[in-house]
From TrEMBL, chains A, B:
This is tRNA pseudouridine synthase A. It comes from Neobacillus piezotolerans. Belongs to the tRNA pseudouridine synthase TruA family. The active site is at residue 53. Residues 7-105, 144-246 form the Pseudouridine synthase I TruA alpha/beta domain. The keyword tRNA processing applies. It catalyses: uridine(38/39/40) in tRNA = pseudouridine(38/39/40) in tRNA. GO terms for molecular function: RNA binding; tRNA pseudouridine(38-40) synthase activity. GO terms for biological process: tRNA pseudouridine synthesis. Its EC number is 5.4.99.12. SUPFAM superfamilies: Pseudouridine synthase. Formation of pseudouridine at positions 38, 39 and 40 in the anticodon stem and loop of transfer RNAs.
Length: 259, 259
């Protein structure tokens, strides 16, 4: 039995999220169905670095699975991609040690949130960016973001129905980049709570409109109360961009701190 | 009665093309349905600069329609867009003289064809670019394109079932631009025959692979035989990018000759 680590990209638009749900079309369900075919009817479970919600995209989701088929790693992507539809792409497959775990070994993640700021709606990014055609004060948003860098209990930025006990996470960087008519927010950290990036984005938007002040952020973090933070930004602007591992037989990548 | 000229953008993926067809979802059908609602049940016909096929996109299709509703031009886009789905966007509406005709007055058009050259499939452009992950000799393609600039009978580059009598058209420019992993081909001319841009693209691809030589193009044009040209490139890489008018109450734009 060989364990494989895969980098996977998907357009989340047509899926009820990553995780298998009975009667629903999910990313995990599609990939496992293809693996089952390749393994002649034998079920193969895949494990991801974490779930993504309905409509959320991935540029670099990471999964692992075990197989005893004698397929070389460089042939696996083609084998899987030819049977998967166009919405999911296996970008790479590499052999890893049997102890590698896509979720438990993840040392950090980068998410990106894309805001489309154009005045007119754009049919080509309607599922890939959140259309926000109102003025935003980027300097204030960046100032607010600096208050979010560090290790905090992020309960204020976590969906209230989450059952995770420990809500302490470290955000190592939040970057802002204007690309044409879009504003791309990149969030790096050691881990993110349920809906955390979308709530952080919604709160930063409220700073950008002037509804909140950057100086209000530290008290908002300290309050540990979801009701005090901003709206949850829509799913379709969010991308799981990259997952970082310290040691998995591949070259390690480290997150760089700072905005 | 006032005549209006509109610039319209649409994602062609979900449509059976531009033109109304019984029982099918089309761009014209969607826009006319919304105009009918706005006019309280009265049918309003729209006229476009030309049709686009199923899967073909538009960044700047032009249509005209007549209305006696007292809606100012700058309010029309919002009125229409709020009732149209996300796949169609009315980018602008302006008053024109009653003699303006979106099709007959069109002095020229620009189409673009986007080739995605990346090795890996990309879930995010699968409907918006033709994935061609093989080497292409761009210098040869540009040399071939230069033989296509000018006024010719383009029968070799026209779907054979077309009933247009006069197949003489003028191509004023073909531009090549690399954008990240994509190659964008821009075609400008006074008009294009059915499937012409897709057949030109398919033929240029065959030059890029070495299957044809640039020097063979003049004989291919002279032959006026569709069977001798290249494959019709897929619809989903094609965009009607802009339509040019000499005089419609707006500033006129002229096409620039040359590759």
């Amino acid at each position: 039995m060989q364990r494989y680590k895969c980098i996977v990209s998907y357009d989340g638009t047509g899926f009820a999220g990553y995780q298998v749900q009975p009667g629903k079309r999910t990313v995990q369900g599609e990939i496992e169905a293809v693996l089952k075919k390749i393994h002649k009817g034998e079920a193969v479970k895949i494990t991801a670095s974490g779930r993504t919600d309905a409509g959320v995209h991935a540029k670099g989701q990471v999964i692992h699975f075990d197989s005893s088929l004698p397929i070389p790693p460089d042939r696996w992507p083609q084998a899987l991609n030819s049977m998967l539809g166009g919405e999911i792409a296996i970008l790479s497959v590499e052999k890893v040690t049997p102890s590698f775990h896509a979720r438990f070994d993840a040392a950090g993640k980068e998410y990106r949130y894309i805001l489309y700021l154009g005045k007119q709606k754009n049919p080509f990014n309607r599922n890939y960016a959140y259309h926000y055609p109102f003025p935003l004060d980027m300097a204030k948003m960046e100032e607010a973001a600096r208050h979010l860098i560090g290790t905090y209990d992020f309960s204020s930025f976590c969906a209230s129905n989450t059952e995770v006990a420990d809500k302490v996470r470290t955000i190592t960087g939040i970057c802002f980049k204007k690309e044409d008519d879009c504003l791309v927010l990149s969030f790096r950290g050691n881990g993110f709570l349920y809906n955390m990036v979308r709530i952080l984005t919604g709160t930063l938007i409220e700073v950008g409109t002037g509804a909140r002040e950057p100086a209000d952020i530290p008290a908002l973090v300290s309050a540990r109360d979801r009701r005090l933070a901003g709206k949850t930004a829509p799913a379709h602007g969010l991308y799981l961009w990259e997952v970082f591992y310290e040691d998995s037989g591949e070259e390690s990548k480290t997150t760089k701190p700072g905005v």
